[in-house]
Specification:
four-stranded antiparallel β-sheet, 335 residues, single chain, 30% helix, three-stranded antiparallel β-sheet
């Protein structure tokens, strides 16, 4: 059964919020409540009902100025012996089936079945019995838990004895403890179903951050946040070497200073220059020298030559001359 959110119907919404209301039993839908009221030195037992349009009506069962005694009867034995009632109900049903077939035992089966069914229904209703004794007589109320707000009804049956004892002793009906627990029960009832109900809620996309634009030139290491009053010290620019070092390709000399980003605050002086990529402190390193030639002192000397085997040239005493005819013949032969 659907139940509206919040507390069930209360009689003090009509009588007045200053009324002390002790809820004895509340229906499962919260539209009917049996309550004990104390207002203007009068004690009342009323039933509050709320229709589908929200209109509340009160039905008064007792109104007295003084309560002499209070009695509370619990039927816990119905729960402790429930298996006995179930067995009697089952035995009566079996006897009824046998009596329908054979023709005897119908009366005994009807008796067992009726007795077991009555006690089983009474055990399922789980009733409690309260009695208010006044000078005008006794007022009895049977409070059953079936189709009631079970948590609140169990709690009120546990607290009513102490509340009535305090009322008979001081004449004040204390209801704060019950009201706090009733509010907790309603808060839990509201929170629990929300975890089981799936609602199609459109999921909004996560907030998008503006795209970051890649800088076209490297930003300065420390951008100025405040307009400088005097030009900051600048680092000396790199100077292109006049001649490339031997055996090493020259580095490309910067042809122009790198572009500078516009400052966030209009500077009164020229912005700082970018630091050089490499601060040359001297000439560039040279390649290692070629391998040196070995010293001649390390070459071993050649072995000595023996000239004793060479024959001596023949001795020529006189030079022989060739005639002119022999020369011509020799030239002819050679041609």
């Amino acid at each position: 059964m659907n139940r509206a959110q919040g507390l069930g119907v209360r009689a003090k919404t009509i009588i007045g919020e200053e009324t002390s209301e002790f809820v004895i039993r509340e229906s499962i839908d919260g539209n009917e409540t049996l309550s004990l009221l104390h207002v203007d030195d009068l004690v009342q037992v009323v039933t509050s009902k709320r229709d589908e349009f929200g209109n509340i009506t009160l039905e008064k069962h007792m109104m007295t100025k003084n309560i002499e005694t209070f009695s509370h009867y619990r039927y816990d034995w119905l729960d402790t012996t429930k298996f006995l009632w179930w067995g009697v109900l089952g035995l009566g049903l079996i006897l009824l089936l046998i009596g329908a077939i054979v023709g005897w035992g119908i009366t005994l089966g009807t008796l067992f079945f009726s007795f077991g069914l009555f006690l089983t229904l009474l055990q399922a209703a789980d009733p409690e019995y309260i009695v208010f004794e006044t000078s005008s007589g006794s007022h009895r109320f049977l409070v059953y838990r079936i189709r009631s707000n079970l948590q609140l009804t169990n709690l009120s049956m546990d607290l009513i004895d102490d509340a009535m004892q305090e009322f008979l002793r001081t004449g004040k009906l204390e209801t704060k403890a019950l009201d706090l627990e009733a509010q907790k029960i309603e808060d839990q009832r509201i929170m629990i179903p929300t975890s089981h109900i799936s609602v199609n809620v459109p999921i909004s996309p996560p907030p998008t951050t503006p795209p970051t634009v890649a800088p076209t030139s490297p930003p300065p290491t420390t951008p100025p946040t405040v307009a400088p009053t005097s030009p900051p010290p600048t680092t000396p620019p790199t100077v292109a070497p006049t001649a490339p070092p031997p055996m090493l390709p020259p580095t490309v000399a910067p042809t122009a200073p790198p572009p500078m980003l516009p400052p966030t605050v209009a500077p009164t002086a020229p912005p700082p220059m970018l630091p050089p990529t490499v601060a040359p402190t001297g000439p560039p390193p040279m390649n290692p020298p070629l391998e040196t030639t070995p010293e001649f002192s390390e070459i071993p000397p050649p072995p000595p030559v023996d000239f004793s085997d060479i024959p001596e040239p023949p001795e020529v005493n006189e030079l022989e001359t060739v005639s002119e005819e022999d020369k011509n013949e020799l030239l002819d032969v050679l041609k």
